[in-house]
Amino acid sequence: MSNPVVWFEVVGSEGSELRSFYGDLFGWSYDVDDKMDYGMVAADAGRGIPGGVGGGEQQRVTFYVATPSIEASLKQAQELGGKVLMPRTALPGGTVLGMFSDPQGNAVGLVEEAA
């Protein structure tokens, strides 16, 4: 797979309730940033992918795909009928993200890999 899924995210109005639900259901533990109402889940022993569960204005489940160029991927997504939801955005700490919706409205995140 040339562009693997590298992160998942579950967001809803009450992040702590979601973390409790998924923690109880799947045995997930979190590294929580209370200021952001966001908890990160680590992949265990090389199985699965890491992700996050947190609070936010819009409920969503999103997967993030690695790409060498977010700008090129967003352009191609638009050419194929998708819409840009978040342009290339550098976060503190160096992570670079983008997001688009597919033609059916599903949100897909992008993570730019360092060259």
Give me the secondary-structure topology.
Blueprint: E1 5-12, H1 15-26, E2 31-33, E3 38-41, E4 51-55, E5 60-67, H2 70-79, E6 83-90, E7 96-101, E8 107-112
Parallel strand pairs: 1-4, 5-8
Antiparallel strand pairs: 1-5, 2-3, 3-4, 6-7, 7-8
Describe the structure.
By secondary structure, the chain is an alpha+beta fold. It folds into two domains: 1-61, 2,3-Dihydroxybiphenyl 1,2-Dioxygenase, domain 1; 68-115, 2,3-Dihydroxybiphenyl 1,2-Dioxygenase, domain 1. It has two helices and eight strands, in the order E-H-E-E-E-E-H-E-E-E. It has helices spanning 15-26, 70-79; strands at 5-12, 31-33, 38-41, 51-55, 60-67, 83-90, 96-101, 107-112. Strands 2-3-4-1-5-8-7-6 form an eight-stranded mixed sheet, with helices on one face. The longest helix has 12 residues, at 15-26. The chain is globular, with a radius of gyration of 15 Å. The mean pLDDT is 92.
The figure for the number of domains is: 2
Compute the number of strand runs.
Answer: 8
Shape: globular
CATH architecture of the largest domain: Roll
Please, what is the CATH homologous superfamily of the largest domain? 2,3-Dihydroxybiphenyl 1,2-Dioxygenase, domain 1
Uncertain segments: none
How can the largest sheet be summarized?
A: 8 strands, mixed
Which series of helices and strands comes N to C? Answer: EHEEEEHEEE
